[in-house]
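Q: Convert this sequence to structure tokens.
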Amino acid sequence: MGKGIGKKIDELAKRKSTQDAGQWRKSVVNHLYWAASTSTSGQEAVAKWTSVANHMQNVHTHDNALFPRCLHGPLVGEGSRVWLKPSTAACERLSDIVLAPRFVKDVEKISPVYHTSTLEAFHSLIIRFSPKSAGFSFRGMLARLQIAALHYNENATRSHATTLEGVLRYAIVYPKYKRGDYTVRALKTRATSVYIDQLMALLFESVVEDPLPYQEHTDKVPVPEPLCAQYERPDKQEAVSRHRSRFFKRT
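A:
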């Protein structure tokens, strides 16, 4: 949701009449994360989220009992911002994006606990075990997915890395989607691979000694039909081949 509304603000900032809205992109996206992580109910998250429409106009009191006023102190000096003037094109269009009924409805259902980052991390880990540049059979792909799951489950809850003095370690990265901006990430401890030793022990102590039960289990794995078009519709492939042969004969 943060990426989506950020892209809408970027499009709005490309126009000359509404380019001032681009200065509020980072603040609006950060406010969305803050509203989700500090709220105990969907109604409270909506109240905090909709308050940003007043905040960017330098209005810090709101007509909502769940969030009647902003929590920050007086904004002076470096804390002050380029406030949007009411009734201007930038203010009105940005308010329409922030207060869009469908988006506000989604904010009410936003979760402060479950995020897609862990799923994206697992997907990137799958590519390490089964690169897209190589083709695998169904059972080969299934085995690689299972190994990726073992590796992820073992290292998903790694602790925060520290220095010898016990200070927490962080890293500054520059993702492409941030266009030169940076992100501070917590460094985790080194990944482990204890599951490999367990698999090797299972292989040499059990499978090699009596492979029949494991072979029977492998044979029970259903292998679906290939998804390639040439297997699904051979008649169409033959027609294409005949058409190509006639074309090359004419030329």
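The beta strands are 170-173, 183-186.
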